[in-house]
Every structure is written in structure tokens, then in C-alpha cells.
Amino acid sequence: MVNKVMLIGHLGRDPELKYAASGTPIANLNIATDESYVDRDGQKVERTEWHRVVVFQRQAENCSTYLSKGSLVYVEGSLQTRKWQDAQGVDRYTTEIKAARVQFLDRKGARDSGSASSSQGEGGQRAPRKQPPEPQEDLGPAFPSEASGMDDIPF
């Protein structure tokens, strides 16, 4: 069985960072993906799908620090459905993506803060966002043939 989600989309608003009672950082992201197609009548139809994404631990703090409304991200994770009760005691369900990996896709220097939230300093000037740290994780070779030395095979 497989439960895997991969998305590339833009944040619809700034990440919301909260902390669980245990102190675990949790960031909530709203990500928009879009598609377009031509219907039977030859009219172009554009459709946007919104996705709820939850990110945990240090990755949640990084998302809160380096991402803002409009940021382009790649998210890899799994679907999960949570049950909760509203103020009237009615059971409600939420399906969201539990992120295992969030990769920032905006080019360095391509964005400033991206939104007019609390990042503005005196005189309405925006304080620049920090640049994301360089990836420290070695994901290995891009192609399996590079790892096995198969580049010398004549076919």
C-alpha cells in the first residue's frame, strides 16, 4: 500500500507557526496548485485546488522563517485525516498532507518578504527575509547508473 503525495504550488498566505503542549513546532501551510484545460466548447477552464499541509519539528520553524505568501514550494508527504469536535460538540474531519519534506523552490534573491505582515520596519520598509540554509543532506547520485559505475557499459 502506498500513501504518498507530491505537490508543487504557491503559498496562499504566510505559514502559521504554533507549538504543541510538548513544545513541538507545528507549521500550517495552505498551498495552491492550478491546472487549465479546454472544455468541450473550446473554452479554456482554469482551476485552483487548495491543499492543507502540516509540517513538524525544525522544518516547521524553517518554513515559518523563510517562506511567505506566494512562495513556491515542493512538498512531499502523506495524506492523513484527523477527527476533532467543534464548539457544539459535533465531530468534524480534516484531511491534510503531513509533510515529510518541504523544499523551497524560489530562486535566491527573487523574493523579498512576499507579504506585508509584521516584517515591516519603520517607515513601512520591509525587512528582508533570511535566505534558506544550503542543503546539508547528501541525497546521493542523481541516477542509479552513477552509483553502480554502469556508465562504462557499451549499450
Please, could you describe this protein's structure?
With 155 residues, the chain is mainly beta. It has one domain: OB fold (Dihydrolipoamide Acetyltransferase, E2P) (Beta Barrel). The protein is 10% helix and 43% strand. The chain has helices spanning 57-66, 144-148; strands at 5-11, 16-19, 25-38, 44-56, 72-85, 91-104. It has a five-stranded mixed beta barrel with strand order 1-3-4-6-5. It is globular and about 55 Å long.
- β-strand amount: 35-45%
**How many strands appear in the DSSP assignment?**
6
Mean pLDDT metric: 80
- Count of individual domains: 1
Q: How would you briefly describe this protein structure?
A:
The chain has helices spanning 57-66, 144-148; strands at residues 5-11, 16-19, 25-38, 44-56, 72-85, 91-104.
Blueprint of the fold:
Layout: E1 5-11, E2 16-19, E3 25-38, E4 44-56, H1 57-66, E5 72-85, E6 91-104, H2 144-148
Parallel strand pairs: 4-6
Antiparallel strand pairs: 1-3, 1-5, 2-3, 3-4, 5-6
Descriptive terms for the model:
155 residues, mainly beta, OB fold (Dihydrolipoamide Acetyltransferase, E2P), 5-stranded mixed β-barrel
